[in-house]
Write a structure and sequence with these properties.
The protein has 473 residues and is mainly beta. The chain has helices spanning 3-14, 157-162, 228-231, 369-374, 396-402; strands spanning 17-20, 29-30, 48-55, 59-71, 80-85, 87-91, 105-109, 112-119, 122-130, 170-171, 179-184, 190-204, 207-222, 233-240, 244-252, 257-265, 287-294, 298-312, 315-324, 328-338, 341-352, 390-392, 405-418, 421-433, 442-449, 453-461, 466-471. It is built from five helices and 27 strands.
Length: 473
């Protein structure tokens, strides 16, 4: 073949590219271990919680609040609604000791309602209303509350829980290393950087012997008000699946500390503890080098580097570039991680090669290891990697893009050896069928390691060839 004809072939094959906008809606998930959107804050009709909250400066005597779910469909479509009642005793004399029984006080009501919606990315606060905060609490609004009122308050447990992070209040799935940014306050002027720190044993009056809870720490900033130093600080909230928040500690910049603890509830903690390992970290700088072989179609290994180039709030842009091998591949993908799993929202790939690679239906080709990983249907991974989780194809858009039917199940944790090392990896098994295309049909096994992502893939195609992808470094 002459150099001119080679360039012609490369241009022709290199022009093969594709865009895939995959609306990854999980069409069918079965198994008792699958998480629900409301697990971290259940809202069954009749749910009830009793909280006791104090503030070392502005509510030293403490307030007992009775919180209950009042409706599943709040007014104006605000979502499910929780209501609370309580009374706060505010000393009339500044600096008075809360232990003095003779100090005159103002009995100030602590009542309110709050609306939430369960979204695929977590719990969202949609609306709230309540009585004014304690009269000695610094104003948290720029106008000082003198013009048109002030819709920002830290005068109750739930107000403290949503402060600076209304959307989402808690992000899902809640996995190791999870971080997200949020806003809050009545005018959205409060910002927060939130991070999941793992499961911790927490003792509260409702569970005096301790209960395992998910610790979420939030760095909160309020600017532009007289109460900046009170509205800013570090808040830690402990969440229990099946119960909701059981404890909250807010260390304010002004030195005061707000604490709320669960005293009693008619709910019970979930007995199913979801694994919290992150099997596909969308973290800027994460990278790996993969080798792809197929003895029938790809006798010389194709080696590609995969890296996360940008990421924000569980969405990441991943690029693929050839290092060596017979395919000059380039790829760009967008992945998002939501409660229903890891899904591909965009994929653009191209490849230039002299190989006669088998065709797939719907004009598809396999050009790099991630093409093999995303092939078929979404999600690629479930939100929580619980063994026994099972789902099948059926999403109309996936079928239009790939034309693949089948199912995927989480087999369990397996010890996997690849050139990059030995991993305790989550094994997934997929059966895939693309009518009329043996290369696009078969059984695919994939192994994902915590904090690393894909470490191995074996696709046994029905054309009697086998593609093997391994992480080599």
């Amino acid at each position: 073949m002459t150099a001119a004809s080679l360039r012609t072939v490369l241009r022709r094959v290199g022009s093969i590219s594709r865009w895939m906008l995959v609306a990854a809606i999980l069409s069918g998930v079965a198994g008792s271990s699958v998480a629900r959107a409301d697990d971290w804050f259940p809202h069954y009709t009749g749910s009830h919680w009793t909280y006791f909250w104090t503030d070392s400066k502005y509510n030293q005597r403490g307030t007992t609040e009775q919180v209950s779910v009042t409706t599943q469909t709040g007014p104006n479509g605000c979502g499910w609604q929780a209501s609370w009642t309580g009374d706060t005793l505010i000393p009339l004399t500044s600096g008075s000791s809360s232990s003095s029984s003779t100090t005159p006080v103002i009995d100030q009501p602590d009542n309110g309602t709050m609306c939430f919606q369960d979204q695929g990315y977590g719990l969202e606060n949609t609306d709230y209303s309540g009585t004014p905060p304690p009269i000695n609490e610094p104003s948290l609004c720029a106008n000082g509350g003198t013009s048109g009122g002030c819709a920002s308050s830290l005068g109750s447990t739930l107000f403290d829980v949503i402060w600076g992070s209304r959307n989402p209040v808690i992000s899902e799935p809640l996995l190791q290393g999870t971080t997200w940014n949020g806003t809050g306050g009545g005018d959205g002027s409060v910002t927060s950087a939130n991070r999941y720190f793992g499961m911790q044993l927490v003792k509260v009056p409702a569970f005096p012997h301790g209960i395992m809870a998910a610790a979420v720490q939030s760095e909160i900033v309020l600017a532009g008000t007289n109460g900046d130093d009170y509205g800013s600080g570090t808040r830690t909230t402990w969440w229990v699946r099946g119960l909701g928040p059981v404890k909250m500690v807010f260390d304010h910049v002004d030195g005061s500390v707000t604490t709320s603890e669960l005293q009693a509830t008619n709910l019970h903690p979930s007995f199913v503890q979801q694994p919290d390992a992150d099997y596909f970290p969308l973290r800027v700088g994460a990278h790996g080098t993969y080798e792809w072989t197929n003895r029938k179609h790809l006798k010389q290994p194709e080696v590609d580097k995969v890296s996360v180039d940008a990421a924000s709030n569980r969405t990441g842009r991943v690029t693929v570039r050839s290092v060596s091998g017979p395919i000059h591949a380039v790829g760009e993908y967008l992945f998002s991680l939501r409660l229903d799993g890891l899904r591909t929202t965009l994929a653009r790939t191209s490849g230039a090669t002299l190989l006669h690679l088998p065709h797939l239906g719907h004009g598809r080709h396999f050009f790099n290891p991630l093409d093999l990983m995303i092939y078929g249907f979404n999600p690629i991974l479930p939100g929580y990697g619980a063994p026994g989780t099972f789902w099948h194809s059926g999403n109309a858009y996936d079928l239009k893009q790939f034309g693949v039917t089948g199912n995927t199940s989480v087999v369990g944790i397996r010890r996997v050896h690849v050139p990059a090392g030995t991993f305790q990896a989550l094994e997934l098994r997929s059966t895939l069928r693309q009518p009329g295309y043996a290369y696009g049909s078969g059984v695919r096994l994939m192994w994902f390691a915590p904090g690393r992502g894909l470490v191995k893939l074996v696709f046994s195609h029905r054309d009697r060839s086998t593609s093997v992808v391994q992480l080599i470094k």
